[in-house]
Amino acid sequence: MKNFSPKPWFMPQAVIVIGTYDADGTPNAMNAAWAGTWDNNKIMISLGSHQTTANLAACPEFTVAFATAETATAADYVGIVSGKKEKNKVAKTGWTVQRASMVNAPVFADFPMTMECRVVKKIDESDTGCYLVAEIVNIVVDEKYLAHDGKPDLEQMHLITFDPVHLGYLEIGKRVGNAFADGKTLS
């Protein structure tokens, strides 16, 4: 075994795209990887000081889309280009923008699944950012990504994860087991 100094190598890290509106109604998006489940109907996102942060201060509603192999290049673009400097960066992605049905935020229809969210609280807010805790208000899934049981089929989505070690994106693969079931064979 080899030792490494502490690094944020928690894996896998979902690649998410946060959608908000600028003050003038222009759709904005940013790529984030430091996020996770907070509770049954809440998520948490570590968010620095971005145009998205300013947008959320004005309107605490946003969307979270899960990046895929097909959306990886544009998702990376909205992560490396600041909305403070490039006003119409979403237009450059070529994404189809729709209004969310339950929050005041854009839905990028090119992604298979999007959560509509509302900020519940901000933790450790400072000039450099904060931790957002948000309630999931609605989940929108493109019907072509539904399984036979009518629920989202994650294998079909080609979701990606951020590789913090080699700074890359990896496609999440196939199902390898059954949660809350396979372990029972060891009982």
From TrEMBL:
Keyword Flavoprotein among record annotations: yes
One example GO MF annotation: FMN binding
Transmembrane regions listed in the UniProt entry: none
Q: What region holds the Flavin reductase like domain?
A: 11-147
Cofactor(s) needed by this chain: FMN
Superkingdom of origin organism:
Bacteria
SMART domains in the cross-refs: Flavin_Reduct
**Pfam families in the record, alphabetically?**
Flavin_Reduct
Q: Does the keyword Flavoprotein apply?
A: yes
What are the entry keywords? Flavoprotein
Check the record and name the InterPro entries matching this protein: Flavin_Rdtase-like_dom, Flavoredoxin, Split_barrel_FMN-bd
Under which name does UniProt file this protein?
Answer: Flavin oxidoreductase
Report the source organism: Sodaliphilus pleomorphus
